[in-house]
Amino acid sequence: xxxxxxxxxxxxxxxxxxxxxxxxxxxxxxxxERAPVLDDAGAGISxxxxxxxxxxxxGVGAAVRAAAHPQYTGGTRTPDGRWLSRMDGAALERALxxxxxxxxxxxxxxxxxxxxxxxxxxxGTGTLGDADADLVVAADGLRSGIRAELFPDHPGPVYSGxxxxxxxxxxPVCTDHDFALTWGPGAEFGHIGFADGRAEWHAVLRAPxxxxxxxxxSVLERRFAHWHRQVGELLAATRPGDVLHHDVHELATPLPAxxxxxxxxxxxxxxxxxxxxxxxxxxxxxDAVVLAAELAGGGPVGAALARYDAVRRPRAGAVARxxxxxxxxxxxxxxxxxxxxxxxxxxxxxxxxxxxxxxRPAAWTPPPLPPA
Length: 372
Hints:
- The structure is a single chain.
- With 372 residues, this protein is α/β, with parallel strands linked by helices.
- It has a domain at 5-71 and 105-159 and 250-330: FAD/NAD(P)-binding domain (3-Layer(bba) Sandwich), CATH 3.50.50.60.
- It is built from 13 helices and 16 strands.
- The chain has helices at residues 13-24, 49-58, 61-67, 89-96, 105-114, 145-150, 216-223, 229-236, 268-271, 280-295, 301-329, 336-348, 351-362; strands at 5-9, 28-33, 44-47, 69-71, 73-77, 83-88, 100-104, 121-123, 135-138, 158-168, 179-184, 187-193, 199-206, 244-250, 259-260, 263-265.
- Strands 6-5-11-12-13-10-14 form a 7-stranded mixed β-sheet. The chain has a 6-stranded mixed β-sheet with strand order 8-2-1-9-16-15. A 3-stranded antiparallel β-sheet has the order 3-7-4.
- Strand 12 and strand 13 (199-206) form a beta hairpin.
């Protein structure tokens, strides 16, 4: 029986993970990535337990854990540094088997690429050169051209009303905690620590789409000048040229399907969501594992993709809605009374409630994949 061929369009986290899963289940895989360098490679990422478990299922979890930094201490603060809620990473690890981990995106991309045979990946091209493939995986991101072809009447991504600036510090920094969020009126500042002592920070602001700054670091230093000292220390440890700036878009209108014919949509191409739960990449990794598991049996591709759609669309849609709600309760609040009410509710909430809130999206068990 001839080996079945899969073409993956997009070499980001979801595309590479899908390629790994398909390759280890017996598919001949080719990954096409248009960009020679991914434009978010200078950023970091937190992976919750469901993302780490997906990586375990793909056989790369141990390598990622070795390169990542576990997040045990942290929580949410006010601009003056007072804690609204604490996160118990050890409790999460006991409940889920793994803590949240932080890793530079470039390091995660490298580990995923290394798990594939070198000939699988072609960078600098994004065309459907292998039109005779048995399967096409559309992992081509927020602005997916394949999604637009399959669903020409879908409105596509919309601006969420928020823009995010982020960077990795140029040197190790002494942070108080492994991760933290600070919520102020109309703004959020957060950081995650890495294994080498550096940290990634992000600043989320309510702003019109398309606004850019000649010197974004100076803008942020002024914007957060009166916030607690950790914010200023992270900004001071950053080179101005390292700051990335992206508007946050989402697929607010859900797709009617994640698969059409022999084409499967995956990651942001299927369910781009706001980053408020840190679940975007984790959901793409879940997609990859479920796709590989459904296609592993050797049956008809169409039937396997129908099962993939039936499993993934309800799950990813629910997480996307939860992320949107979380954003509305965070930096999106600007009225002083609304901010005060939210802060009071968080301070009064029992610690177990915070753990349960994190457990909801992260408590996912991957389907089994055949041994490599």
